[in-house]
Automatic annotation (TrEMBL):
Residues 5-62 form the HTH lysR-type domain. The keyword Oxidoreductase does not apply. This is LysR family transcriptional regulator. SUPFAM superfamilies: Periplasmic binding protein-like II, Winged helix' DNA-binding domain. InterPro entries: LysR-type_TF_proteobact-type, LysR_HTH_N, LysR_subst-bd, WH-like_DNA-bd_sf, WH_DNA-bd_sf. It comes from the Bacteria. Keywords: DNA-binding, Transcription, Transcription regulation. Belongs to the LysR transcriptional regulatory family.
């Protein structure tokens, strides 16, 4: 069996490569920058080839370093999972990261029910549209949008991406919105977004060529929901996420037509953490909550991507 290089040198390389900065790697590892550089040099001497290209005060991975980093990062993640599974990870904090719209609109209003069902588990919820690096964070599970099939991750399909125009009832009534074509003359958030063109086509509205309009573009449906609830405009949003607001009458979906975005929402975590109690309990609870919405949403959104 090939002898494995000293773990300290491998660890220094992984941190420096992941962060692309020797100083930040030193801070993370509690070492000096000189010590990190020494460990990396030792590893390079052992391999007989450079792992970094050093140029004008900065470093970047060499071709060899790029080939080596994914396997090394996965190995450290697997070791972390192995130690965590011995017991302490079973009862600690469940850290969830969710895309902003789903986390702030659907999950935040229901996560208290999960806490009540499992009072021994503390829950930490953060929201971001950036992809989570499980190897470089304490996140246990993430709610992610995309096509699925991410290497090294277990991905549970939740629902297909789907949108429909949503607004405040006062906006609908004041603008006499009665048929899809009426939306061409009212204030629409992100009016030039392709989702609008796709939905209008699905609703049978002729928009060729599509009219270009000035309008407000916001970063997430969470911000759009705030804007439309205040009576400003109508937005292309996901009714499943805003079911509570629709049921309460704070928002309305004027038409039943949906546009399918071609993406989906998934629950993801590292493959090596399958079976960890806090992750499995959240996974089971999340699917049960999804099932509660199944009968009130179009059947097509529950069909996994092909």
């Amino acid at each position: 069996m090939t002898k494995i290089p000293p773990l300290a040198a491998v660890r220094a390389f992984e941190a420096a490569a992941r962060l692309e900065n020797f100083s930040r790697a030193a801070e993370e590892l509690g070492m000096t920058q000189a010590a990190v550089s020494y460990q990396v040099r030792q590893l390079e001497d052992r391999l007989g080839r450079p792992l970094f290209v050093r140029e004008k005060g900065r470093v970047r991975l060499s071709e060899t370093g790029q080939r080596l980093l994914p396997a090394i990062s996965s190995a450290f993640a697997a070791m972390g999972d192995a130690f965590a599974s011995l017991g302490s990870d079973e009862t600690d904090v469940l850290t969830i990261n969710a895309v902003t719209s789903f986390g702030g609109g659907w999950l935040a209003s229901r996560i208290g029910a999960f806490q009540l069902a499992f009072p021994d588990l503390a829950v930490r919820l953060s929201m971001s549209n950036a992809l989570v690096d499980f190897n470089a964070s304490s996140v246990d599970v993430a709610i992610r949008m995309g096509p699925g099939g991410w290497p090294g991750l277990r991905a549970d399909f939740l629902f297909r991406g789907h949108v429909s125009p949503i607004c405040a009832p006062s906006f609908r009534d004041a603008n006499h919105i009665e048929q899809p074509a009426d939306l061409l003359r009212v204030e629409r958030l992100a009016p030039n977004d392709p989702w609008w063109a796709g939905w209008l086509a699905a609703a049978g509205v002729d928009t060729s060529p599509p009219p270009q309009r000035r309008g407000i573009e916001l970063d997430s449906q969470l911000q759009e929901a705030s804007a439309v609830q205040s009576g400003f405009g109508i937005a292309m949003m996901t009714p499943l996420i805003w079911r509570a607001e629709i049921d309460a009458g704070r928002l309305v979906q004027p038409f039943d037509t949906f546009y399918h975005t071609g993406s989906a929402t998934w629950l993801v975590h590292r493959e090596g953490r399958a079976g960890v109690r806090k992750i499995e309990r959240f996974r089971e609870w999340l699917h049960a909550e999804m099932d509660r919405d199944r009968d009130r949403s179009p059947a097509a959104i529950w069909e996994p991507l092909g």
